C-alpha cells in the first residue's frame, strides 16, 4: 500500500528541485535496481509488485499493486519495482587517467548513454558542466542500465576545471584534426559539446587539442553525428590501442 | 485549413498499415523536410504555419495554424511544418561495397541513428530483416535528420540475403574476435542484432566472421552496449584505415 504522501514524494523526485531537497532519487526495473542494490548506494525504500530481492530490511520494502506502481512510475510501461535511493555525496576529482567532460549535454538519454560508454571503456570519471542534464533524472538513471554505480559523475564549473587540468584536453569539433591519425594518450580529458551548438567558445579556448571524426560520404550535407554516437567513436579511439580485456 | 479527412489520413500514416496502403509517409521540421525536398523524394503535400520553401507547386502547399499543426503532428513539440511524401520504390540491392544488415532492430530511434551513421561513413545500403522497425515510421524519419535521402534502406529475408552474399559477412557478438585486431575489408556485410537478444542463431550460422568490441572495465558486470553505439564503433573501425575526406 502506498500513501498519497508517498506518491507525492516519489513523483516529486522526477524534478531536480525535489531530488536536491530530499537528497533522494529513484530507479525502476529489476536490472537497474539490482545493480544499485549491489553497489554502495543506500536503499531508502523499495516498492515492488512481488518479492524480488533477498536480504533487504523488511522496513524498507512495500509490496504494492500494479495500479499503485503506475501511480509512482515515470515509465509508460512500469516494470515490477521502483526503488528510492539516497543520493550519495560526490566523490572527489581524480587528476589522472582518462576523463570525459561534457559541456552542456542536455538530453537525459545522451547523458545516460555516455555514462554507459564510460563504463564499457573503463573510464571512471565523468565531469559535467552545471548546464548538463542531471545524472539522477529518472531518464538518465534508466539509460545507464546500472553503469551509474561504476562511473563517478561530478558537476562543476567546466572552465575552471579545465583551466587547471594536469592532463591534456581534447575537444571534439566538426573541423578538428582527424582522430584516426592522432597519437592519443592514456591520461587526458575528452570534451564533448552541446547537442545543437557543440563546444562553447570559452571551453574551446581551453582545449589544447581539437579532434574530429572524419566524414566519409561523397556529399557534404551529412548532419553532424549525435553526441552519444560521437562519444562512442572517440572513446573507442582512445582505448583501441590498449586492447581491452 | 486542414479538413477532418486530411487529419485522419495524416495521423493514420503513423501506422505502418496505412503507410503501405496509401504509399505515403511524412516528415516534420524545416531541416528534415528541406533535405527530402532537395532529394528524389516526391512531395505529396506540405502543411506549414508560414511560407517556408521556394519553388513548390502551390497546389501542394497548405498554410495552417499552430493548432491545426498540433492535430496532424506526431511530435510533442510540433515544428512549423509537416510534409507528406510519396514512398519511393525500393532500389535494387548492390552486391559490392560495405553494407550494414540489421537482424530485428526494433527501436525506431536506433534504426534512425544507424541510418545517420551509415550516411556519415559513406555506406549507401542498409538491409533490414522484416522484423526491423519501419524506415517510414515518423520516429525513424525524424531520427535520421535527412540521412534517409542518401542511404538505400531495403527490407528482405535476411537469411536468404546472407546465404547468397558475394562479400564476407561480419556478425557482431559479445564474444566475437576483437574488432581492433582484425583486418577489415572495404567490401563486406556488417550484421547487427536485436536490442535484447543480439543476432539470432540462424543469422549467426551465416556469419563467417564473428567480431566484438572489447570491454575495458575492471569488472565483468558492464551491460552490453546499445546497438546504435556499437554500430558507431564498428563502422568507425571499418572506415578508419581509409581516412575519410
UniProtKB/TrEMBL annotation, chains A, B:
Going by the entry's taxonomy, the superkingdom of the source organism is recorded as: Bacteria
GO cellular component term of the entry, any: cytoplasm
Q: Which UniProt keywords apply?
A: Methyltransferase, Transferase
The record's Gene3D superfamilies line, in alphabetical order, gives: 3.30.1330.30, 3.40.1280.10
What CDD domains would the database entry show?
SpoU-like_RNA-MTase
Every copy of the RNA 2-O ribose methyltransferase substrate binding domain together lies at 26-91
Which Pfam family, giving just one, matches this sequence?
Answer: SpoU_methylase
Keyword Methyltransferase part of the UniProt annotation: yes
- SMART domains, from UniProt? SpoU_sub_bind (SM00967)
Q: What biological-process GO terms show up in the record?
A: methylation; RNA processing
Molecular-function annotations in GO: RNA binding; RNA methyltransferase activity
- Do the record's keywords include Transferase? yes
Q: Which family does it belong to?
A: Belongs to the class IV-like SAM-binding methyltransferase superfamily. RNA methyltransferase TrmH family.
Q: What is this protein called?
A: RNA methyltransferase
Amino acid at each position: 500500500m502506498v500513501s498519497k504522501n508517498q506518491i507525492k514524494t516519489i513523483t516529486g523526485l522526477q524534478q531536480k528541485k525535489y531530488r536536491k531537497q530530499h537528497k533522494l532519487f529513484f530507479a525502476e526495473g529489476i536490472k537497474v535496481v539490482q545493480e544499485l542494490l549491489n553497489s554502495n548506494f543506500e536503499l531508502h525504500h523499495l516498492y515492488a509488485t512481488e518479492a524480488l530481492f533477498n536480504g533487504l530490511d523488511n522496513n524498507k520494502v512495500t509490496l504494492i499493486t500494479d495500479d499503485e506502481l503506475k501511480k509512482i512510475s515515470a515509465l509508460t510501461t512500469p516494470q515490477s519495482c521502483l526503488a528510492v535511493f539516497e543520493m550519495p555525496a560526490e566523490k572527489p576529482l581524480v587528476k589522472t587517467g582518462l576523463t570525459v567532460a561534457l559541456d552542456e549535454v542536455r538530453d537525459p538519454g545522451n547523458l545516460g548513454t555516455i555514462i554507459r560508454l564510460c563504463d564499457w571503456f573503463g573510464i571512471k570519471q565523468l565531469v559535467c558542466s552545471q548546464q548538463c542534464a542531471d545524472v539522477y533524472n529518472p531518464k538518465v538513471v534508466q539509460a545507464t542500465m546500472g553503469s551509474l554505480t561504476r562511473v563517478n559523475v561530478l558537476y562543476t564549473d567546466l572552465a575552471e576545471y579545465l583551466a587547471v587540468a594536469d592532463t591534456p584536453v581534447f575537444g571534439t569539433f566538426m573541423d578538428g584534426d582527424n582522430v584516426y591519425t592522432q597519437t592519443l594518450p592514456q591520461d587526458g580529458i575528452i570534451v564533448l559539446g552541446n547537442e545543437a551548438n557543440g563546444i562553447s567558445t570559452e571551453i574551446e579556448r581551453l582545449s589544447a587539442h581539437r579532434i574530429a571524426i572524419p566524414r566519409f560520404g561523397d556529399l557534404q550535407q551529412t548532419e553532424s553525428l549525435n553526441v552519444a554516437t560521437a562519444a562512442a567513436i572517440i572513446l573507442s579511439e582512445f582505448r583501441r590501442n590498449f586492447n581491452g580485456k
